[in-house]
Design goal:
- The chain is mostly helical.
- Among the domains are: 5-75, no CATH class; 91-307, no CATH class.
- Helix content is 46%, strand content 9%.
- The protein has helices at residues 53-75, 137-159, 166-179, 204-209, 211-228, 236-249, 316-327, 339-345, 365-368, 379-403, 466-484, 493-503, 512-528, 531-549, 554-569, 573-591, 596-609, 612-656, and strands spanning 5-6, 9-10, 13-14, 18-19, 91-95, 97-102, 124-125, 133-134, 187-188, 194-195, 250-254, 260-266, 273-274, 280-285, 288-293, 306-307, 347-349, 358-360.
- It has a three-stranded antiparallel sheet with strand order 5-15-14. Strands 6-12-11 form a three-stranded antiparallel sheet. The protein has a two-stranded antiparallel sheet with strand order 1-4.
- A hairpin with an 8-residue loop joins β17 and β18 (358-360).
Length: 660
C-alpha cells in the first residue's frame, strides 16, 4: 500500500491503484465483464473525491458502456447484436380490433364475428335483436362479449325502424368496451412495446378550437342518448377524448374482394404515421389487420414505417386540407413538395393543336394566391388577406394610371399568404420522408406558370386565355363536388359519364381529377359488366395510375389485374397474361401469397393459358427449352470425355508398363 492506495494484480498484470476506502468492493476486470451480474451501486461518499479517483472510474467505465449498449439492443428488438431485418412482403404488425362494426347495408351479408360472407356460409340473425348476423354458434358466443350491451338497444330501435349511424354504433361499442375493463387492455406490437386506448392521440385541444367538430360531438351525444341511454354516456371531457381518438385512429376494413364493408379501432396498428408515398401497405384477413412492408428494411424501425391515410390520386392542396381536417396535421413529405407532380395535377392540354403539352392551371381562384405547399388560412386571416389584396390592387391601379408604366414586374401576381412553418409537422431526419432541403419551399406558383406571371405552355409558348382558366376551374369544382358523393364500390355510371363529358378534351391525360374520374368509371364499368367501356377507360388511364401510385404499389397492381381480366374477356390473351404476370409480384407483397385475390389471379391466368394459340406457344417454348438443355448436357459430356479417356489410358499404361 502506498499513499492510501493499494495495487492489485489480475492475471499477471498490474491494475490501476484503488482507494483504500473502496477496498471492500469486488471490482470486475475491464477485459471480460460478466453481464449476468447486476451492477453494484458504489457507496461514494459526499465531498471531493481522492486525487486518483479517475483511475477507478476508468476501470468500471467499459462495463457500464457495454451494459448500456446491451440494454439498448434489447429495446430495439435485437438479439446478440444482430438487428431485426424486414424483407419486402413481411408482416410487421398484426392487430385485432378493439371495437368494430359492419356498415348497415352489409350487416345481413357478413358474419359480425369472423366477417365471412353469406356466399361462404349460411347466416342467421341474433334471436334477440334480429339485426346482427352470425354464421355459427361459436361466432355468436364470441360476439356476445360486445353484443350483449347493444342487443336491447338494437331490438328497441329495430321495431321502430330506426337504425343509428355507423359511427354512432362504433362509438357505442367503444364505450361498452371501456366500461367492461377495456382501458386496461394492452395490445403488443413488439416483444416489449404495446398500446392502450389512452395511448392514442385524442387532439383534445384541436377539437376544443374547432366549432364544426364540437357541433359534431354534440350531435353524437344526442344520438347516443337515443341509442344506448344517458347512463352510459361519459362526461363531456372524457367523451371528447374518446371522439378525438376515434376520429384519427379509425380504420375502414375490407372483405376478401377488397370491398369496404365496415370500420374498426385498432390499437397496435395506430402507431403508423402517414406518407403520401408509403413504404407499408394495409390488408385484412377477416377483421384482423396486417401491415406489410413494401420495401426491404435492414433494421425494423416503426418510426420510419409509413402508411397512406388518403388516396394519392388527388391534388396536393386537396390532400393536405383533408389531412388537416380529419387528422389535424399538415403533411410535409417530399411528394407534397414535388413541383413537377404539382404541375401535372392541375393541367390542361395546350390549345395549340400541334403541341398538346400539359399546361399548369390553378384549380381554384384561392389556390392562385398561394402555392400548393402553403397551408390554407383561417377565416379571419383570409378576410384580412382579401382586404389587403384589395388595397394593394387599388394602390397599384392608381400608380399605373399616374405613371403609365409598362413594367412587366408590376403585372406579376403577388403571393399574399405567407407559409407558417411552425404549424407544419416536424420533418423526419436524414430526409427519410420529408424533403431534404428547404430550397423552393416558399416559391409561388409563378415558377410553374413559366416565371413571367403568364399562363403559357413551356413547350410552344402558347398563352392560355382567361376564359379557358375560368372554365377549367368551374369544371374542377363540379368534379370535386361529384366525387365527394361517390363511393368506390359501385358509383353511378351516369355521374361518371357526366363528369367525363364535361372534362372533354380540356383536361390533360395526367390531370389528377381526370385520372380519378376515369378510375371511378373503370370500376363502375367492371362492376356492371360493361367490359368494352372498362377496357377503354383502363387503357386511357394506365399511365396516370402508374405515375400517381407508382409501379410498385399494390393498388396499381390491382388495377392491372382488373385490366388484364378485361383484356382476356376480349380474347387478347397475350396482353392479358402479360398484365397478370406484371401484377402478381406486388399483389403478393401487399396482400400476401394466400390472399383470395391471388387465387383469383391464378384462375384467370390458367383460363387464359387454355387458349389454343397460347398452348401451342407454350409447348413450342417448352420443346425449345428441352432441346437447349439436351444440347448443354451433351456438350458437358463431350467436354468431360477426353479427360476421362486420358485418365484410363494413363492407368493402362502404368499397369502394363515393364518394371525396371
Amino acid at each position: 500500500m502506498e499513499g492510501g492506495f493499494v495495487r492489485m494484480c489480475v492475471s499477471g498484470r498490474e491494475t490501476p491503484a484503488i482507494p483504500t476506502d473502496l477496498q471492500g468492493l469486488s471490482v470486475a476486470p475491464p477485459t471480460r465483464p460478466d453481464l449476468r451480474q447486476r451492477p453494484v451501486s458504489l457507496p461514494i461518499t459526499h465531498g471531493s473525491p481522492p486525487a486518483r479517483m479517475k483511475d477507478y472510474r476508468s476501470l468500471v467505465a467499459p462495463m457500464k458502456d457495454y451494459g448500456t449498449r446491451y440494454r439498448a439492443r434489447e429495446l430495439l428488438g435485437m438479439r446478440r447484436g444482430t438487428p431485426k431485418s424486414v424483407k419486402k412482403g413481411d408482416v410487421i404488425v398484426t392487430s385485432v380490433p378493439f371495437a368494430h362494426i359492419i356498415n348497415r347495408e352489409y350487416m345481413s351479408m357478413y358474419c359480425d364475428c369472423c366477417i365471412r360472407s353469406c356466399k361462404e356460409r349460411l347466416l342467421s340473425p341474433c334471436p334477440g335483436c334480429h339485426t346482427v348476423w352470425y354464421c355459427r354458434g361459436r361466432c355468436r358466443e364470441e360476439g356476445e362479449v360486445w353484443h350483449k350491451w347493444e342487443c336491447p338497444a338494437l331490438k328497441r330501435l329495430h321495431g321502430a325502424h330506426h337504425m343509428p349511424q355507423d359511427f354512432v354504433r362504433l362509438m357505442a361499442r367503444v364505450i361498452f368496451r371501456l366500461r367492461d375493463g377495456g382501458e386496461k387492455y394492452v395490445e403488443k406490437y413488439s416483444e416489449r412495446d404495446g398500446r392502450r386506448f389512452r395511448d392514442l392521440m385524442n387532439h383534445y385541444a384541436d377539437l376544443k378550437k374547432n366549432e364544426e367538430r364540437k357541433s359534431d360531438a354534440d350531435f353524437l351525444i344526442t344520438e347516443l342518448k337515443k341509442y344506448i341511454g344517458e347512463r352510459f354516456i361519459p362526461n363531456y371531457s372524457n367523451f371528447l377524448g374518446i371522439y378525438g381518438r376515434m376520429l384519427v385512429n379509425r380504420f375502414s376494413f375490407m372483405d376478401k374482394t377488397m370491398l369496404t364493408i365496415g370500420s374498426a379501432m385498432y390499437l397496435a396498428a395506430s402507431i403508423f404515421d402517414h406518407a403520401c408515398h408509403p413504404n407499408c401497405y394495409v390488408s385484412f384477413v377477416g377483421r384482423t389487420v396486417e401491415i406489410r412492408s413494401l420495401v426491404d428494411m435492414p433494421t425494423l424501425n416503426y418510426s420510419k414505417c409509413r402508411i397512406s391515410y388518403v388516396d394519392p390520386v388527388s391534388s396536393v392542396n386537396t390532400r393536405r386540407q383533408d389531412l388537416y381536417k380529419k387528422w389535424f396535421f399538415w403533411c410535409d413529405c417530399r411528394v407534397c413538395y414535388d413541383r413537377q407532380r404539382a404541375s401535372f395535377e392541375n393541367s390542361i392540354r395546350c390549345e395549340n393543336n400541334e403541341c398538346q403539352a400539359p399546361v399548369y392551371i390553378p384549380e381554384c381562384s384561392e389556390c392562385e394566391r398561394r402555392g400548393p405547399w402553403q397551408q390554407p388560412e383561417t377565416e379571419e386571416q383570409e378576410q384580412d388577406s382579401h382586404e389587403q389584396a384589395g388595397e394593394v390592387v387599388k394602390e397599384r391601379g392608381s400608380a399605373e394610371r399616374n405613371t403609365k408604366s409598362d413594367d412587366t414586374e408590376s403585372q406579376k401576381p403577388i403571393n399574399y399568404c405567407s407559409r407558417d412553418t411552425e404549424t407544419l409537422n416536424q420533418r423526419p431526419e436524414n430526409g427519410e420522408c420529408g424533403i431534404e432541403d428547404d430550397e423552393g419551399v416558399d416559391e409561388t406558383m409563378d415558377e410553374l406558370e413559366g416565371g413571367n406571371g403568364r399562363r403559357e405552355c413551356r413547350v410552344c409558348g402558347w398563352e392560355v386565355s382567361e376564359e379557358t382558366v375560368r372554365r377549367y376551374q368551374e369544371i374542377v369544382a363540379f368534379t370535386k363536388e361529384k366525387l365527394r358523393a361517390l363511393t368506390e364500390e359501385n358509383p353511378p355510371m351516369e355521374t361518371c359519364l357526366e363528369m367525363l363529358e364535361r372534362q372533354g378534351t380540356i383536361f390533360s391525360p395526367m390531370n389528377v381529377w381526370r385520372v380519378r374520374t376515369l378510375d371511378f368509371a373503370f370500376n363502375c364499368a367492371m362492376f356492371n359488366g360493361c367490359w368494352s367501356l372498362a377496357l377503354e377507360y383502363g387503357e386511357e388511364n394506365m399511365n396516370g395510375m402508374r405515375y400517381y401510385y407508382g409501379s410498385d404499389h399494390p393498388t396499381y397492381s390491382l388495377f392491372l389485374f382488373k385490366l388484364g381480366k378485361a383484356k382476356i374477356y376480349f380474347k387478347e390473351f397475350r396482353e392479358g397474361v402479360r398484365l397478370l404476370e406484371e401484377a402478381e409480384p406486388q399483389l403478393k407483397v401487399g396482400l400476401g401469397p394466400t390472399h383470395p385475390i391471388i387465387d383469383d389471379l391464378h384462375l384467370v391466368s390458367l383460363m387464359a393459358n387454355e387458349d389454343i394459340n397460347i398452348c401451342l406457344e407454350r409447348r413450342i417454348s417448352a420443346a425449345k427449352k428441352r432441346e437447349e438443355e439436351l444440347k448443354e448436357k451433351q456438350q458437358q459430356q463431350q467436354n468431360t470425355w477426353p479427360s476421362c479417356r486420358d485418365d484410363v489410358a494413363k492407368k493402362l499404361q502404368r499397369m502394363y508398363s515393364p518394371v525396371a
